[in-house]
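Field: COMPLEX_INPUT
Field: COMPONENT_COUNT = two
Field: RESIDUE_TOTAL = 810
Field: MODE = joint
Values follow.
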Amino acid sequence: MPSAVVTVDLERIPPAIDGLDGYSRAFVYLTLRGRVVNQVRLPVRDGRLAGTDIHTAAARPDRYAVWDRWLRNHLECEEPGTSATGVRATVAVCTRERPDDLERCLAALEAMPDDGQEILVVDNARATEATHRVVTGHPRARYIREDRPGLNAARNRALAEASHEVVAFIDDDAVADPGWLRSLVRNFADPLVLCVTGLTLPLELETPAQEWQEILSPFGRGFDRRVFDTTVLSPPSAGLTGAGVNMALRRTVPALLGPFDEALDAGTVTRSGGDNEMFSRIIGAGYRIVYDPAALSWHRHRRSWPELRQAFYGYGAGVYAAWTRSLLFEGELHVLRTAYRWLLDHQLPSLARALLRRPGSAPLDLLLAELRGCAAGPWAYFVSRRRLRRRAA
Amino acid sequence: MTAPAVSVIIPTHNRRASLARTLDALARQTWPAGSIEVLVVADGCTDGTVEALRGRAVPFALRVLEQPGRGAATARNAGAAAAAAPLLLFIDDDVEPTPSLVAAHVRAHEGHADRVVLGPYPPVLPARPDLFRVGLRRWWQDHFTAAADVGHRFTYRDLLAGNLSISAGLYGRTGGFDPAFAGCGGEDWEYGVRLLDAGATFVFAPDALGYHHEASDHARSLRRARQEGRADVIIARRHAGLRPAVAFGRRESGRAAAESWTSVCVFRWPWVAVLLPAMITPLLGPLERLRLRRSWLRVSRALRGLAYWQGVRDELETWKALAGFLQNGPARPDEGPEATLNLRDGIAAAERRLDAERPAGARLRYGELPIGRIPPEAGAERLRGVHLRPALADRFAVPYLMALSFERALLDARQGS
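Field: COMPLEX_OUTPUT
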């Protein structure tokens, strides 16, 4: 049964929420002045979410974020490091043959306050005119055609074409909150910060595939703002800093550290991992990444189960492909230990629980798909590089 | 000919190319060149600096003073004495100012007397620096980022002479830099102590940005750590109240810095302190190549700790002298005036009181409930209104929240009954 996605303002909890017919439960995101601070799962009975349930859940906030946010609102005192002003940004949407999603994404981007940002749409390896038609309907967006296949190729093109100092990426199937860009950009005061990532929550949870995606592999990294550098984590674990669906980079990153690796991520054999690898490089070179949950966007997860299985295969392949590059070309020996720990501490226990059919265990086929992806990852990276070289020749 | 508004004082010692770069950048300032005078104090230069300067065509008034190798402090004082402008701007010869630097300093002084304006000068490094440079850049950048924060409580350690402006009047009244630090640096920190004692206001101007073309390496940083040890002893000797604040006098979570293995090692078994660095320094290269960053950091910190304590030992010589030195000073900073603030009267009211009274410390209450105490800090500025909110949001978050919710619970109970 599908789940409803509901946001509730903690300062104005309604007595009940109706109109949720057809849902058996709700993922409730609790907010304070627009900032998401907590999430709870509550039952829906006869299309109604009882206010008492919300109150009970809200009254026991086990998250520091709730208190911290409430206090900072009360004192009107923002977190240190979030005071950058006058930074102009370019918003980049890399897309391929998803006109309906793109339409929704652009509409949300245009609803954001105007701080002088420009909007770029990079049409990657297009097969039809659909994307171009959508962009023509939005005069504020600039259309760029990138025929080299691959999400990372599109990202590199966006960085090359941008005119402002910060480039904020959002997926074509995501919807930005009105405060999304401002929340990303305000973290760039520290020159050591090369990348800022944000919180991405699910737009809808209509199918079991979408629900399991959100439970097992959410894009969000919690509700607390965190600053990452080598003193806090090692480069192979850089996937913990955020996700490429919601990130902003300084335009100078390719000049400093090299471009996104075009052998990685969607559109190539490795399926994903392009963002992880860049985060890993940024951390490895001694710079910082900030995760700011105030930068909120909503993502439409894959609806069908086969797509979800493919996605899990892609995550495994992408992570291992990115690690292969880190190990062989950046010399990060920690990859071996990180991979070992992931397998032993997370993947195998999850597999065991699924095999024994413990309650709450993950679907076995998804875990197996991820493991198959991991096994295929390293070789996929080499195949991808070879194809890239052949195309360039 | 009108008198200049700003005198830029640059002490220099055998850095002809770097000095040329700084002068070129000063020629590109947004502040009108006719209103700038630059005094270069050549401190024992033997590389042709003075000759190169004489032939130079510059848009501002340029004067060259020479002195026989007496150190940066004396050079800066000499420059200040010869300066004609009411505002003195000190810049190091390896700092390259951005075009808005001079204007930013001048603007920060407008309408205020007795201000000391500090500008950032983070190091310029290659895109992918080695671990040493990563650490160096992080240290400098964090220092400036903290100083730029609105709620930052300035201390004597914020006074860095590489990018600093001060009115000539204040400089004269406080006596300038102390030449006694010629061999070991630290004269800027010591001057910071005196400026704070004189009631000067420290201000950070983020637009007064310069780029520091730092040329140090690991060996040089160890030498500097040793000098810092010596300088800290000299500062603490001169200002008894500073003993709890300097690195070797600090107590953190009940444990004295002097009890660490590095200090015991250096004083009790000096031969170990010489042998150990020789043995573990070669480890740094392989650790870095294997990307074992945390281990590299631990080794690097241990080496710097050993070097620092060797510097302390250079000045104090025996363990007995160190113990006596620490015991004879005050265990806690001077109890200056402390204000008691009742936050129930409103935070804005508390901020106004802090700005008016400028106490050394503050005790915070909410009605009858204690929240916490901002203790007096040796070598730190007195409290201002802007310090309150960040302290409440961070350090005192839990007791403050508890007091607020207790208050609300009482209120609800009273209303219910």
